[in-house]
Amino acid sequence: MAQFRREELVAIIKKAHRWGRHVCGHAHGTEGIAWAIESGIDTIEHGQFLDDATAKLTADSGTVFVPTLANDFNRRRLDESGKLPKVQRNRAAELAAMGIVWSTAEERMAHSRKHGVIVAAGTDSGGNAIVLHGDNGAELVMLVECGYSPKEAVLAATSVVAKTIRVDSRGRARSARVRLPGPLPGAGPEARSWARCARSRRARSGRGRRRRPLPDHTGPRD
Predict the structure, then answer these.
(1) How far does CA 97 lie from the centroid of its chain?
(2) For helices 138-145 and 105-115, what crossing angle results, to 10°?
């Protein structure tokens, strides 16, 4: 986000909002996060270097934080099994040589909890080689590992997300069961106690049914 000038960010976000569009910001560094929030962004994705001051700014502005924790989950799993892609290992070494150390998921989520940041579970599944479609249930496991209760994790992946993308008026599920694919290396006992290791719902969801499209905004808001 810091690659844009502030005037550009403001113009982009205002124009999108005028047409009723949600604006999310792919941001890792604190400067980019702060600029995006001050420009009126709706959500911050990743926030890899989120610190205490930036977390407070996020909370005070009401901006939703989407930490994409499945990246951390799968990176740890691959690293422990010796299967982390070489490009990822090389990148980590390059950053370390420059004195740049990525904060852990636990660290940035601790800042978020401290200041009451609104957290929504979401991933860039399919956008990289680490997180694949169907593995996004790891977001809930990681939230619990980072100190959130199972209930808070489920809400972050359901009602909070629905409100964030403005589809919360469509109704609510009466009951739900969280199913996560495969074993969960590195997941603590609390996470394992509620997250049942099973095939994801993708095996049985959406078959024979047409999904309702998201609302299409055809013009600017009044």
Answers:
(1) 28
(2) 70
Q: Does domain 6-167 have CATH number 3.20.20.140?
A: yes
> pLDDT of 177-221, one tens digit each?
545 444 444 444 444 443 443 333 334 444 444 444 444 444 454
DSSP element (H, E) containing 100 = none
Euclidean distance between CA atoms 143 and 63, whole angstroms: 18
**Cβ-contact 25, 55 below 8 angstroms:** no
Alpha carbon distances (Å) from 189 to 68, 140, 164, 193, 222: 22, 14, 30, 6, 51
Contacts 24+ apart (CB under 8 A), 215-222: 215/166, 215/167, 217/19, 217/20, 217/21, 219/19, 220/18, 220/19, 220/20, 221/17, 221/18, 221/19, 221/20
Alpha-carbon distance of 125 to 174, in angstroms, equals: 27
* Nearest one of 17, 102, 111, 129 to 57, comparing CA atoms: 111
Count Cβ atoms within 10 A of the Cβ of residue 220 and give its class: 0-12 exposed, 13-18 middle, 19 or more buried.
Answer: exposed
pLDDT tens string 116-146: 999 999 987 776 667 777 788 899 999 999 9
